[in-house]
Amino acid sequence: MQKTQRFMPQERRAVSALASLYAMRMLGLFMVLPVFMVLGRELEGATPALLGLAIGVYGLSQAVMQVPFGALSDRFGRKKLIFIGLGVFCLGSVVAALSDNIYGVIFGRLLQGAGAIASVLMALLSDLTQEENRTKAMASVGMTIGLSFALALVLGPLISGFAGLAGLFWATACMALSGMILLYKVPTPLQQRRNLETIVLRSALRNVFQHKELMRLNWGIFSLHMILTAMFVAMPVTLADKFNMVADRHGWFYLAVMGAAFVFMIPLIIIGEKKRLLRQVFTGAVWLMAVALMIVMKGVNDFIGFTLAVFGFFLAFNFLEATLPSLVSKVAPAGMRGTAMGVYSSSQFFGAFLGGVLGGLAYQKFGLMGVYGLCTVMAVVWGGVSLFMPDPPYTASYVLPLQPFNVDAADKIAQELTQIHGVEDVTLVIEEHLAYLKIDRQRFDEKALINYPLTAQVEG
């Protein structure tokens, strides 16, 4: 039975190590964002379009390699694939650090993204945690991703201020090496479990692509990261060229607006979840982003106006970034969370890729206003799409271990579980002896599961 309980000591060590490893890798990818468009202008052959490609190209290799890395880890082992992925990431960082021309940096960034270990990390986390602690473990890793992004916006300008662009890439190489060392502290699982909360199943991909609400959310994360990456084509140049802010001070600007946005985001999450107004707050956040981007276009020569608009942008971004994965988890049918999150992650990385490419092209052709205009159009389109978003189900995942059962008993079990008050959806996996439930926590009758006759469905 799935009950809330504390991590066991070995689970705590595993979660801590994997979260730290994830954070190191995310720092390495993101630290370049706030300064690259300014410092990269010194690279041989650099043009705004090529600089934008260098910023976003990691997203292309990330999106392409996510599923293959996960599949290979099922066959050859999680830790081996994570080690290889970190090695590829480190190699890409070294290539970028040694390059004095834009093409070498583009290739280095492509290699950085090719070490796509996110899905393998989540699968390893699943192997090393109990069913009842898995959601909490994934939430812990999710928080480190958000914190690492905010920290990257501060550390990137600081490190590049005394070590230059090459020093920034050397720092990411060192982080990758540190991650490879840290990997040895992660326990090796006794067995690998193909948990449906973390793996991508090819047989379930068609269902995800045919699911209207999941595809609406995938469009959302695609748009969000396309806008974010394109914004980092324009914002560093705006701060440097319009407001004469040296690159190593950009981090303090981002720290101030991101910190304030994070504080103001918390009430939005509380209102959305506790008051069950998530659809209204979500749609409002998308339109807040659109309005903030419109103001950025008008306030590009006014530092106070620009700062307030960027604050509004990050307020919306932080809320949407935190809410979208939760919505995918709520909307995904029981037992399809891993596949749904796999498609979601690929959409996110493709968005980052196109944001860099199209943002760079827009800057080269139309200047800063072209980039901010592109972002505004994307936000307005997303705002229109979000208007048709239905109220999301306020459900959570619940994993119920069962005694071994056969195909003949499966229909009866599913029927009985579906009749329990608050159970919205049921997926049974015979090989795992598990039932994946979608439950409404406010209506869920957990006592009915305590009395559920698990032994009545024993195989044979």
Automatic annotation (TrEMBL):
Pfam families: MFS_1
The keyword Ribosomal protein is annotated on this UniProt entry: no
Main location: membrane
Tree of life domain: Bacteria
Classification via SUPFAM superfamilies: MFS general substrate transporter
A single MF term (Gene Ontology): transmembrane transporter activity
Keywords, comma-separated and alphabetical: Cell membrane, Membrane, Transmembrane, Transmembrane helix, Transport
Residue ranges annotated for the Major facilitator superfamily (MFS) profile domain, each copy included: 14-394
Membrane topology: Multi-pass membrane protein
GO cellular component, one term: plasma membrane
Subcellular location: Cell membrane
Name recorded for this polypeptide: Permease of the major facilitator superfamily
Organism: Hahella chejuensis (strain KCTC 2396)
